[in-house]
Amino acid sequence: MSSRPTRADFDQYMVPNYSPQQVIPVRGEGSRLWDQDGREYIDFAGGIAVNALGHCHPVLVEALKSQADRLWHLSNVYTNEPALELARELTERTFADKVYLCSSGGEANEAALKLARRWAYDNHGEHKSRIISFSQSFHGRTFFTVSVGGQPKYSQGFGPVPGGIVHAEYNNLDSVRALIDDNTCAVMVEPIQGEGGILPATQEFLSGLRELCDQHDALLVFDEVQTGAGRTGSLYAYTDYGVTPDILTSAKGIGGGFPVGAMLTTDRVAPAMAIGTHGSTYGGNALASAVALAAVRFIDTPEVLGGANKRFELIREHLETINRKHGVFKEIRGKGLLVGAEMAPEYEGRAKDILPLAIEEGVMALVAGPNVLRLAPSLVIPEQDIVEGLERLERAIARMVSGQ
């Protein structure tokens, strides 16, 4: 019999592009996890905003088990019922007319960028290929998406990046005006910058982007991989702003933990992705689609979406109380259950120092860059778990402040 895997096995057998915490969770239920030794943790990380309904939610478990006995995978040589149902649900619940299914946010953004360029090529010619994105943005880990993303550290060392990509300043409409012209095919933006520090867009900024894109016949692309699937208290954050994109990408919470991605678009744009222009072997497989269908139907309800906003106020209230005691935060921001706490100047760059201490205190959290503590728990996390988890988080913060 083989021995129980340990954290040391990661260092021995895995490519070293991650540095996971020392504990190995083996079981989850709701907003709590247990490691190999039976120690319990409250999960404020949510698999990086993926576990929208927590761990092993019965609705998702039932969908998975039911579909597992029927059909898993066909490839897109054929279609399948769960994929068609999921596409119909997404179009009926959003601005979109058409859906492309894939397996991750990076794939969804890759598809969106290729679609935007192909649409511009078909309708205007090859000169219309410029893409505008924003500094500190994050759109995935494919080479195209890291190049469009506004964090050069993710593309450095891999050779020449694709051309025709420029970066403006987030929430600065004048910086976009200086770059956009009739050669621009798309502007890609996160309604709330996630990896860039949980920074919400202003109403003026997103409305202005829509106007500029209309003036130059460019496509507005919303990356809602992190903000979508109920994370901000709406099914998608574009509705919070009343600004409708031409293309929207979704992943993370849309599958509640199962790998699913989707690109949503309109009848005006979709024909550019004609037969043979793009594809995904696993995209739209029956198993993933069945789980995502159950997740979307459960999340897009007043109870779940309204609960996310209510929980945000509870978290913010407790974080402000913690801050009054310890003075570690400069600002607490976000929307719904995507919460960022920016570190105060005297703790600049030390958000990551909280994470291992938090694990020791029995709570899992995240960072969004070196200077922002990020919380992205389940949309249905019980309020008692929020309170208890924040008590544990406060103990971790107190230890950091005191140097223990």
Automatic annotation (TrEMBL):
One record GO biological process: L-arginine biosynthetic process
Cofactor notes: Binds 1 pyridoxal phosphate per subunit.
N6-(pyridoxal phosphate)lysine modifications at: 252
Entry cofactors: pyridoxal 5'-phosphate
Residues reported to bind N(2)-acetyl-L-ornithine: 141, 280
Amino-acid biosynthesis recorded as keyword: yes
Protein name stated in the entry: Acetylornithine aminotransferase
